[in-house]
Write a structure and sequence with these properties.
- The chain has a 3-stranded antiparallel beta sheet.
- It has 5 helices and 3 strands; from the N terminus they run ααβααββα.
- By secondary structure, the protein is an alpha+beta fold.
C-alpha cells in the first residue's frame, strides 16, 4: 500500500527539521564534500554528524561515495538546493513582514 503524497511530504519536512541536517545541506550546495570538511564547518561531535548524515542518506536527500580513503557526500538532486533557496526567500519574506508589523505597532504607541 502506498503512502499518500501529503504524508510523504510531511516525512520529508520532518527529515529536514534538524539544524545540523540543514547546515549539511547548505554546505553540500557547492558540490560534494568529505566528512572531514563537514566536521570542520559544523560544531558537532563526529558521531552526531554521522547520525545526521545517515538520516539524510536513508531519506535519499544525500548520497555518499568513496574516493580513495575519503567518503564524500553530495546532494542527491539539484532540487534540494532549490528548496533551500526557496526556504530562505520565504523566511526573508516572513521576517520582513514581521519587521514591518513591529514598526507599525511601535509607531502607533507614540
Amino acid at each position: 500500500m502506498s503512502v499518500p503524497l501529503y504524508q510523504a511530504k510531511a516525512e520529508m519536512f520532518r527529515t529536514l527539521g534538524h539544524p545540523v541536517r540543514i547546515r549539511v545541506l547548505e554546505l553540500l550546495q557547492n558540490g560534494p564534500r568529505p566528512v572531514r570538511y563537514l566536521l570542520a564547518e559544523i560544531d558537532v561531535e563526529a558521531s552526531n554528524l554521522s547520525q545526521q548524515l545517515a538520516v539524510l542518506r536513508r531519506a535519499g536527500i544525500v548520497t555518499s561515495y568513496r574516493d580513495g580513503s575519503l567518503v564524500l557526500y553530495a546532494l542527491s538532486t539539484p532540487q534540494v538546493a532549490e528548496l533551500l533557496a526557496v526556504s530562505r526567500s520565504i523566511l526573508g519574506s516572513l521576517l520582513t513582514d514581521r519587521d514591518g508589523l513591529l514598526a507599525e505597532l511601535q509607531a502607533q504607541r507614540d
